[in-house]
Write a structure and sequence with these properties.
The complex is a heterodimer. By secondary structure, chain A is an alpha+beta fold. Chain A is 28% helix and 30% strand. Chain A has helices at residues 21-31, 47-58; strands at residues 10-13, 38-44, 62-68, 73-79. A four-stranded mixed sheet of chain A has the order 1-2-4-3, covered by helices on one side. The N and C termini of chain A lie far apart (27 Å). The model of chain A has no long low-confidence stretch (mean pLDDT 93). Chain B is α+β, with helices and mostly antiparallel strands. Chain B has two domains: 6-81, Alpha-Beta Plaits (2-Layer Sandwich); 97-156 and 215-286, Sulfite Reductase Hemoprotein, domain 1 (2-Layer Sandwich), CATH 3.30.413.10. In chain B, 32% of the residues lie in helices and 20% in strands. Chain B contains nine helices and twelve strands. Chain B has a four-stranded antiparallel sheet with strand order 1-2-4-3. In chain B, a hairpin with a 5-residue loop joins strand 3 (55-56) and strand 4. Chain B is globular. Classes of the chains: A alpha+beta, B alpha+beta. Chains A and B meet through helix 2 and strand 3 of A and helix 5 and helix 6 of B.
């Protein structure tokens, strides 16, 4: 089952904050989107990339892809679900 | 006045203090849970018969110190009217501890509290050659420190990948702390030897492509007092309570039969031989 084609509407960088603010910053950015819009969230390797994707899933959003930027950071592509 | 039967008091949870005729009363707590009403009762008794404070023990217990010998019976009555039971000390099965488990904690792989209640109902207070502690933790994060108990139970998932549901998004590769999942081009591989059943892939997967079958990982012979030793995992993960209780029964039987008086479970296994113990556990696991 391939990842559907997507177009990024918004970006947020959470590499400048630490847990639990990483998730809070991502959540705030998601709240500003409309349903169905897609955001790319840049996060650090380690705890953020281990935990943030799951927290976003638990919030009910749709995680589409995790991209390795090969610089110690990752971009998580998320589609907003709900108002 | 009749001679004070300190042993009987201790068996009933009354711990002698350094102050003459004063006791610290251990209460029965299962899985670390008390209701708000029980807390009110405990507070009232501590104010009326103690010195107004309680002590939280290292194993999720509550003790009410400074109870006078003369009020032992009144205290017991007052507590039981408020739905609070006394604990136990001495050579027997102690408080069964548990983390909050899968009904509360997002990381939990098993429902710990009902299991703690079942174990407590089955074994709590059972007399053995020495103390015996059960501890239940919901996942590999091990908040409840399973391996420091005589019999530790840890929740885990046995995982299966469902190719049809997978988008190869890459989330699980990073969620896994063991490096057990790899994605190369358009295929995913699980290195089974590295999987520690933590279930983080299942919890993180956005498309439910990882399926987790929950189970119990047992550790035997942990002790964390005068002697420190980590409990050992000897069996494959167990998926049903029937097998779990068959193994637990067998462990307690082994302890009762093989230990010298006042010998801890760990010491009894060390002396009898781990091979022998492991065989007994494997037989119980297999259904003997």
């Amino acid at each position: 089952m391939p990842v559907p084609e997507y177009q990024i509407d918004e970006t947020v960088d959470i590499t400048d904050v630490v847990c639990p603010v990483t998730f809070v910053k991502a959540k705030v950015a998601l709240e500003e989107l409309d349903e169905g819009q897609i955001i790319s969230i840049r996060m650090n390797d380690g705890e953020p990339v281990q935990n943030v994707p799951r927290s976003i899933k638990d919030e009910g959003h749709k995680v589409l892809k995790l991209l390795d930027n090969k610089d110690g950071t990752y971009n998580l592509i998320v589609q907003k679900v709900g108002e | 006045m009749a001679a004070v039967d300190y042993k009987a008091l201790k068996n009933g949870g009354f711990m002698r203090q350094i102050q003459k005729d004063r006791f610290s009363l251990r209460l029965k707590v299962v899985g670390g849970n008390l209701t708000a009403d029980q807390l009110v009762t405990i507070a009232e008794i501590a104010k009326k018969y103690g010195d107004g404070h309680v002590h939280l023990t290292s194993r999720q217990g509550v003790e009410i110190p400074f109870i006078h010998l003369d009020s032992v019976e009144d205290v017991k009555t007052g507590l039981s009217e408020g739905g609070v039971l006394t604990g136990v000390c001495g050579p027997r099965v102690r408080t069964v501890t548990a983390c909050q488990g899968s009904e509360v904690c997002p990381s939990g792989c098993i429902d710990t509290y009902p299991l703690a209640v079942e174990i407590s109902e089955r074994y709590f207070g059972k007399t053995l050659p020495h103390k015996f502690k059960f501890g239940i933790t919901g996942c590999q994060n091990n908040c409840l420190k399973a391996e420091e108990n005589d019999l530790g139970i840890k929740g885990g998932y046995v995982i299966t990948w469902q190719k049809d549901l997978c988008t190869l998004c890459g989330v699980c590769v990073k969620a896994c702390r063991e490096g057990a999942i790899e994605i190369n081009d358009d295929s995913l591989s699980l290195i089974k030897e590295k999987c520690n059943n933590c279930g983080r892939c299942v919890k993180a997967c956005p498309t439910e492509a990882w399926e987790g079958k929950s189970g119990y990982i047992l550790s035997f012979g942990g002790t964390f007092g005068n002697q420190i030793a980590k409990g050992n995992e000897l069996l494959p993960i167990i998926h049903d309570k029937e097998t779990l209780f068959r193994v637990a029964d067998a462990a307690l039987t082994f302890f009762a039969e093989c230990a010298n008086p006042s010998e801890r479970f760990r010491a009894a296994i060390d002396r009898s031989g781990w091979d022998k113990f492991k065989k007994a556990m494997e037989a119980a696991y297999a259904g003997a």
